[in-house]
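User: Please fill in residues for this 526-position structure.
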């Protein structure tokens, strides 16, 4: 057993096998430790997320080791209890990687299909996305390499193989597994009970299906009065502080990329600081209203104006709250610095919470739909708790394209997977931020990092701020809407303060990572 560092409030417990992970996780669920916020089981690891007030000490580490040893003694060879009968999963074997997988396994396509159908699969743990279960096989031949370069978009319903696992993508999302087919089954529906079609420990079998029966698409009712998005370069998203304790369901916290800016905007209009606001990326963006509203803008917004039929063109001072009346139009220009702006309204916005949050998770497809030109966001009726700010509020300076932003990291949990030269390169390089903007992750360009350990890493829990090095040898920094598990080694993890800063780093800027201490495991016990 080893305990590896992730951040000052997160550790990764590495165990011998999946059965050991399940045993320790069950122990911590049945008899929780007060320091632990949530647990994230995976193939050979258990990620422990701790409360912000916790400082990891030797006593805590020793207690985790004791719990693990006790759990191994008590489980008596039983990994977990199988849930219910075998569930049949109809699918079509028409994936783009079918021939490549067959060749790697030394089979014909027909033999691969027959083997896949004959195998009994077991839902081991959930991760990556809501309803995405890592299924393990009773046929040891199913252990294939992952793609060297992940796809940026894998269609919903894709059935894919990666390492020793099979999985079904519940929604369109990035992915590095080999696609062998697809299914029309709805794996995840937050309006259904239970939301996930597959349950932990369930036995599954794939059956061939030629017919296509697409699931009906639920069209949410759209608001007709409220704030109108007249034009937007990128979708405007409703974001609050995000979801808590849902990682075991395959759901990340999500929430505002820049929580400090969210809190400040709400405080300026007298709201509770955690209320949802509109997250506006880049610009320009134009907004109007049906009713008089009091607003505040924080984050990247700097050049802001209101076109009024009575007052003409009026410049907005974003250091103070401001009013917007029917007939007027708010224009937020493309920011010169930073990326995200937050528009809070006194009283908040109306939207039914999903898994306890109004946030839009772009990977999990949870929360209110993205707002595009012509859409309307309904006004809320949350009772303000304070007065509107009457004095100017100072907002932090943000980086611009070309700037070098220094960010502190904790080396780990998989720094040892890279040779010493690559670790030095990682910490000395000015990594360039790519042009693509995503709430899932930030791709960086620079020198290729070389692994000291080849082979595949068993999928394990990751958090916002994890810096994965994908097969091509380049870093990918996970942000708010990240998958909750990943199969590429994490060389380092942003500290909580650095995670707040990276949210406002624009394309064309550069990142330089610093580490306060060299990598070392926190505890190792034979």
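Assistant: Residues filled in for all 526 positions:
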């Amino acid at each position: 057993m080893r305990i590896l560092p992730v951040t000052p409030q997160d550790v990764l417990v590495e165990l011998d096998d999946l059965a050991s992970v399940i045993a320790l996780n069950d122990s911590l669920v049945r008899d929780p430790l007060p320091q632990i916020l949530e647990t994230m089981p995976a193939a050979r690891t258990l990620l422990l997320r701790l409360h912000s007030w916790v400082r990891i000490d030797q006593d805590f580490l020793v207690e985790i080791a004791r719990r693990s040893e006790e759990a191994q003694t008590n489980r008596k060879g039983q990994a977990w209890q199988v849930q219910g009968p075998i569930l049949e999963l109809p699918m079509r074997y028409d994936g783009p990687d079918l021939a490549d997988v067959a060749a790697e396994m030394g089979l014909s396509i027909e033999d691969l299909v027959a083997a896949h159908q004959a195998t009994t699969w077991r839902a081991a743990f959930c991760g990556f996305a809501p309803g995405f279960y890592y299924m393990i096989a009773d046929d040891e031949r199913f252990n294939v390499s992952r793609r060297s370069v992940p796809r940026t978009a894998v269609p919903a319903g894709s059935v894919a193989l990666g390492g020793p696992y099979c999985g079904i993508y519940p929604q369109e999302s990035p992915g590095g597994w080999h696609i062998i087919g697809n299914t029309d089954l709805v794996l995840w529906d937050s309006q259904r009970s239970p939301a996930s079609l597959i349950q932990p420990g369930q036995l599954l079998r794939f059956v061939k299906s030629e017919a296509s029966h697409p699931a009906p698409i639920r069209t949410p009712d759209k608001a007709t009065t409220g704030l109108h998005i007249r034009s937007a370069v990128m979708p405007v998203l409703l974001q609050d502080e995000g979801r808590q304790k849902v990682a075991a369901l395959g759901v990340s916290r999500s929430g505002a990329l820049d929580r400090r800016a969210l809190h400040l905007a709400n405080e300026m209009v007298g709201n509770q600081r955690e209320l949802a606001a509109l997250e506006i990326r880049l610009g320009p963006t134009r907004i109007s209203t049906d009713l008089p509203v009091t607003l505040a803008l924080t984050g990247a917004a700097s050049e802001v104006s209101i076109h009024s039929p009575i007052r003409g063109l009026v410049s907005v001072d974003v250091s103070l709250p401001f009013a917007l009346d029917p007939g007027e139009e708010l224009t937020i220009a493309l920011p010169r610095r930073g990326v995200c702006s937050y528009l809070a309204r006194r009283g908040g916005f109306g939207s039914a919470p999903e898994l306890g949050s109004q946030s839009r998770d772009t990977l999990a497809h949870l929360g209110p739909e993205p707002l595009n030109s012509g859409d309307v966001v309904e006004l809320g009726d949350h009772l303000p708790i304070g007065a509107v700010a009457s004095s100017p509020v100072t907002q932090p300076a943000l980086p611009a394209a070309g700037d070098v932003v220094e960010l502190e990291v904790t080396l780990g949990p998989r720094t040892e997977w890279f040779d010493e030269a690559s670790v030095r390169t990682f910490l000395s390089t000015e990594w360039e931020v790519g042009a693509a903007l995503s709430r899932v992750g930030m791709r960086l360009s620079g020198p290729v990092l070389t692994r000291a350990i080849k082979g595949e890493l068993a999928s394990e829990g990751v958090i916002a701020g994890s810096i994965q090095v994908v097969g091509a040898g380049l870093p990918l920094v996970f942000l708010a809407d990240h998958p909750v598990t990943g199969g590429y080694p994490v060389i380092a993890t942003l500290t909580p303060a650095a995670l707040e800063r990276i949210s406002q780093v624009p394309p064309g800027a550069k990142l330089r990572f610093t580490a306060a201490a060299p990598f070392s495991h926190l505890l190792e016990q034979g």
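For context: The chain is about 15% helix and 30% strand.
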